[in-house]
Amino acid sequence: MTLLNETLIWLMKRRLPRIQSFMERPMDAQEQMFWSLIDDAKYTLWGKKYDYQSIFSIKQFQERVPISSYEDLYPYIERMMKGEENVLWHSEIQWFSKSSGTTNARSKYIPVSKESLEDCHFMGGKDMMTLLANNKPNTQVFEGKGLSIGGSLSSNSLNAKSFAGDVSAVVMKNLPIWAQLIRTPSLDVALMDVWEEKIQKMAEVTAQENVTSILGVPTWTLVLIEKVLEITGKSNILEVWENFEFFIHGAVAFQPYRELFTNKIFPSDSVSYLEIYNASEGFFGIQDDLTRQDELLLMLDYGIFYEFIPMDEIESENPKALTLDEVELGKNYAVVISTNAGLWRYKIGDTVRFTSRYPHRIKISGRTKHFINAFGEEVIIENAEQAITRACEVTGAKITDYTAAPEYMKGGENGCHEWIIEFSQLPDDEEVFRKVLDETIRENNSDYDAKRYNDMVLRMPKIQIVEQGTFYEWMRIRGKLGGQHKVPRLSNTREYIEEILSVVSGQRFISNSDKNVHA
Fold it and tell me: Torsions phi, psi of 476, nearest 5?
């Protein structure tokens, strides 16, 4: 073991007492974050508007400051992008994280302050390695390089003194020298603009490196690994990266990909998997226990104050938001944050469910705007992930990507859910796959089950299996290639599905479980 590896592990483990402190006293940490945020922002334009100087309790803050969407905050963010200071946050904002959330055409520009970089994004990266080392004390992960798939950066069109880009690119660009030394590829490659050229160059560079970990989205990681194998002629990526130890993943649910990664991509018990929850708005959670799949420790001292809206309140004009000490286990909540970059009571669009308290662990259950409820069935992403995972287990299938949307009632025929799925390994029996998918959603969602009863409202789902590369081509056409962009799993409209169907109009459907159509 090298001195660098030993030193970094020793430094990371010194961070554990701080993490254990907020695990045991969560509201102490959250109250400290709250008062720090209020104090730092009291002389900003926003702080003066809501008279932060006269706020003396969290309840007073909740009564005075409205819950905001991106559209609500955008007029203030636009002023910051033009160079105006002291608008939402007290320090100068030179970086903006560009995000579409999923694949929406309109981009969002999230302010990234020096405080959110240092105390949130960088802190999250360090704690990620701390918890990784705590789970695997004999790790030699720092003997090699950590591979990360970044986005790209460009000058802010409204102010040449600031920059905009994917949050991964913003973070990479600002990493300290010691962190740059233990990652690959170099910044000039990691921040390349043209995705196809970047993947090619990344593969060429990293194929020659001793890669011991990857931080990335499962879908885009698969694209890179396939390119590395193509270049090297190897049949297994562990033949290229013999000392590989950790795949650190986020952005999309990993469960549907787990079998593919554990049995085919990294077929070794020596490889571990750690999930993180980070976004343009901040770094929120880390899997602190590798035995607890899909459960993330909520990180409470990153300059973020959390609130949670019960799902039965989400459509209310003035929804009641709960603080951390008020949440209950097993219920779905929409996440609201106030941050050290000036996002105030901001709905990030994600829903979570608490799996434990003391410490507070969460499971990401979906998106507030990504669901199917065309017939009163209220299917959320968690239902879809459970069903896809179970259907793959039963039929031996492995997926690359999928999306689903309603097919509405027409011609006297009941509606259904239409699924477009791209497999890396086809199911043994497509009809069994469809039945297990349907049955699993029925088992986990009583509203869907009621609508499916005797096909009274919903008939069996339609599944269309498309050629490999279909989703990649769709994302390419939309200009959404790269690690920050994700395929929307569920939509309550047919916008995405119709676009994908237009992509495959020149292809032959591999299979259509509802009707025998060939394009």
Answer: -65, -45
Residues of the chain with CATH 3.40.50.12780: 3-367
At 114, the amino acid letter reads: K
Q: How far is CA 438 from CA 148, 306, 471, 513, 516, in A?
A: 36, 35, 23, 13, 20
Integer Rg of the chain from CA: 23
Joined tokens for residue 333: 């909540």
**Which residues does residue 145 pair with via DSSP β-bridges, in sequence order?**
211
Inter-CA distances, 339 with 60, 97, 194, 301, 366, Å:
18, 14, 32, 11, 22
Given a contact cutoff of 8 angstroms between Cβ atoms, the answer to whether 448 and 377 are in contact is yes
Range with top average pLDDT, 87-91, 98-102, 126-130, 403-407: 87-91
The amino acid at residue 438 is D
Cα 144 to its chain centre, rounded Å, is 26
CA–CA gap between residue 500 and residue 404 (Å, rounded): 11
Tokens representing 92 are 């100068």
Is 3-367 a CATH 2.30.42.10 domain?
no
3-state DSSP percent of the chain in helix, strand and coil, to 5: 40, 25, 35
**Looking at the chain, which residues constitute the CATH 3.30.300 domain(s)?**
371-505
Q: Selecting from 3.40.630, 3.40.50, 3.10.50, 3.30.300, what CATH number does the domain 371-505 have?
A: 3.30.300
Q: Which residues contact 478 (CB under 8 A, 6 or more apart)?
A: 103, 105, 499
Q: Which residues pair with 310 in a beta bridge?
A: 333
Query: What is the enclosing helix (H) or strand (E) of 283?
Result: strand 282-286
* pLDDT tier at 32, thresholds 50, 70, 90: very high
Residue 2 has pLDDT above 90, yes or no: no
Q: Sorting pLDDT into bands at 50, 70 and 90, what band is 513? A: low
CA pair distance 398, 389, nearest whole angstrom = 9
b/e per residue 452-468 (b: at least 16 CB within 10 A): beeeebbbbbbbbbbee
| Rounded CA separation 133/139 (Å) | 6
Q: Identify whether the C-beta of residue 419 lies closer than 8 Å to the C-beta of residue 464.
A: yes
